[in-house]
């Protein structure tokens, strides 16, 4: 099919024999796929609903600081992402650091950043800690994640760690990552989380470190966008797609503003509910599989403070009644000089996509979250806040529910030329950019054979 887009593509005449691919979604997945397909000599158009690329990894302005809308770290062992950053000339720009972890329990902050501190942690006794260690080692050594996918995560952790360690250690951690959705989640979730954290040791590195490119994802995305343009990728921003459907000899994409674009192939990278809404002509089974993916949403506040907090990158919350599921202090991981000496803190609350908390105004979220932050850090008051912004995303992370890998949506659909590749296809991993990049790399290898 010849490209029927309204504007000519850069280099279109020279490349007229190559197939034309449309990619819906300009997050890290869509961008990586666009880069690889353009390197294969395909003509590529990247279509993004938002005015900027990056999706969940995009950046925003917070007072005088531009930083990620959601907190992001890169691990030393994130090899797929680091290879991509290296190609963009940014791997050398990562600043690495060892971080500290805190726990808020019994109205106090405790450091649990090493084994000694964990042993001293008053909430767990030595038997609990020994069983915790055995649980982590067991998960780090196992390879049979399919079996773990059949067991609820709480059952598996209680079996290995005991009830007390589950309630005092694992449950707050599960809640901090999954909210109440932990009850629907399989043990494969904790397995993949531990596998990710142990990847550095397995690959021979002595320890894991956390890092971030100087300038954050704003810098990564700007450099990546330039690279895509240099490769001739056409980028349509502020262009929400309303329909993707079969057309004679290919696939047609209708934008909300009425424009229609024709492609030989279209890859939809948006989350499963958005893909289900847009894609026409799918079979009932394909629609059922898309609808069957349960998502976790997030309300996440970015708070710029006059000064950094106590230096814990993650603080897990054991005490009940706090309005958020963890405290993430980015200025404990990234040097505060990048924030003009200020503190940057994220307050995430993971919840179900239909939770009424999504409807709360920014002012209400600020009131409730600041009350919570003052419980953890009594010296912090409203006068310390330089900027406060709230991000809301209803479909962030597909939940690894029981038997998840047997119910995946198809990657190549029954509509000729229509492909779905999104975070729902991460089966034995957690949601992170390294997995996202790997997903794009695998899809690109597969698409190499499609002319
Ligand atoms: C709170 C939080 C913390 C995180 N922390 C980390 C971390 O520390 N380390 C790490 O590696 N990863 C982290 N991640 C995960 C990381 O952000 C994701 O793995 C990655 O950004 C997913 O990219 P994606 O392209 O698959 O999806 P998305 O970023 O969701 O991109 C999908 C894109 O599709 C677009 N779209 C949707 N519908 C349409 C439509 N109809 N038309 C056109 N465009 C459409 C969206 O606007 C979006 O830009 C975190 C995520 C969150 C939310």
General description of the model:
A hairpin with a 2-residue loop joins strand 11 (241-247) and strand 12. Helix 1 packs parallel to helix 13 (433-447), helix 2 (79-87) crosses helix 13 and helix 6 runs antiparallel to helix 7 (163-178). The chain has helices spanning 28-39, 79-87, 115-120, 126-141, 145-148, 153-161, 163-178, 188-202, 216-230, 272-278, 284-291, 362-376, 433-447, and strands at residues 20-24, 43-47, 59-62, 65-68, 74-75, 94-97, 100-105, 108-111, 210-213, 234-236, 241-247, 250-255, 260-263, 265-268, 295-305, 312-317, 327-329, 343-351, 385-398, 418-420. It has 451 residues and is an alpha/beta fold. It contains 13 helices and 20 strands. Flavin-adenine dinucleotide binds next to helix 1, helix 10, strand 15 and helix 13. Residues 24-30, 47-50, 55-57, 70-73, 240-241, 269-270, 274, 278, 298, 300, 348, 396, 422-423, 431-434, 436 line the site of flavin-adenine dinucleotide.
Described by the principal axes of the CA atoms, the overall outline is globular
Mean pLDDT: 92
- Radius of gyration from CA coordinates: 23 Å
Task: Please indicate the percent range of residues in DSSP E strands (runs of 2 or more).
Answer: 15-25%
Number of strands: 20
Number of helices: 13
Highest-level CATH class of the largest domain: Alpha Beta
Strand order of the largest sheet: 8-7-16-17-18-15-19
Q: What structural class results from the helix and strand content? A: alpha/beta
Measured as a percent range, the helix fraction is 25-40%
CATH architecture of the largest domain, by name, is: 3-Layer(bba) Sandwich
Counting structural domains, the number is: 3
List the ligand species. flavin-adenine dinucleotide
């Amino acid at each position: 099919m010849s490209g029927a887009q309204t504007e000519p593509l850069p280099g279109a005449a020279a490349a007229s024999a190559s197939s034309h691919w449309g990619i819906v979604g300009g997050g890290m997945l869509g961008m990586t796929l666009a880069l690889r397909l353009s390197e294969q000599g395909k003509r590529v158009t990247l279509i993004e609903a938002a005015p900027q690329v990056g999706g969940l990894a995009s950046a925003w302005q917070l007072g005088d600081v531009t930083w990620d809308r959601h907190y992001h770290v890169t691990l030393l062992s994130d090899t797929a992402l680091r290879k991509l950053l290296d190609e963009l000339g940014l791997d050398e720009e990562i600043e690495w650091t060892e971080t500290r972890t805190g726990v808020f329990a019994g109205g106090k902050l405790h450091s649990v950043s090493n084994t000694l501190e964990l042993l001293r942690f008053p909430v767990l006794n030595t038997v609990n800690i020994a069983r915790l260690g055995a649980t982590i080692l067991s998960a780090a050594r196992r390879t049979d994640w399919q079996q773990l996918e059949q067991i609820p995560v709480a059952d598996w952790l209680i079996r290995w760690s005991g009830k007390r360690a589950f309630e005092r250690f694992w449950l707050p951690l599960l809640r901090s990552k999954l909210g109440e959705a932990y009850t629907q989640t399989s043990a494969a979730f904790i397995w993949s989380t531990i596998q990710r954290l142990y990847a550095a040791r397995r690959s021979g590195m002595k320890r894991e470190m956390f890092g971030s490119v100087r300038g954050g994802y704003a810098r990564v995305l700007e450099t990546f966008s330039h690279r895509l343009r240099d490769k001739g990728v056409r980028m349509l921003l502020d262009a929400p797609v309303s329909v993707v459907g079969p057309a004679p000899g290919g696939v047609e994409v209708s934008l909300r503003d009425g424009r229609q674009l024709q492609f030989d192939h279209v890859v939809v990278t948006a989350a499963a509910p958005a893909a289900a809404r847009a894609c026409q002509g799918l079979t009932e089974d394909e629609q059922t599989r898309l609808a069957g993916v349960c998502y976790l949403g997030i309300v996440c506040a970015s708070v710029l403070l006059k000064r950094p907090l106590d230096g814990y990158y993650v603080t897990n919350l054991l005490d009940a009644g706090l309005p958020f599921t963890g405290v993430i202090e980015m200025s404990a991981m990234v040097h505060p000089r990048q924030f003009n000496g200020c503190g940057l803190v994220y307050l995430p609350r993971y919840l179900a996509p239909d939770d009424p908390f999504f409807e709360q105004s920014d002012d209400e979220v600020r009131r409730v979250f600041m009350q919570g932050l003052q419980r953890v850090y009594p010296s912090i008051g409203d006068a310390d806040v330089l900027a406060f912004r709230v991000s809301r995303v209803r479909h962030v992370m597909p939940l690894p529910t029981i038997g998840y890998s047997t119910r995946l949506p198809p990657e190549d659909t029954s509509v000729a030329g229509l492909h779905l590749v999104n975070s729902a296809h991460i089966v034995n991993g957690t949601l992170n950019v390294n997995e996202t990049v790997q997903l794009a790399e695998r899809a690109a290898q597969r698409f190499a054979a499609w002319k």
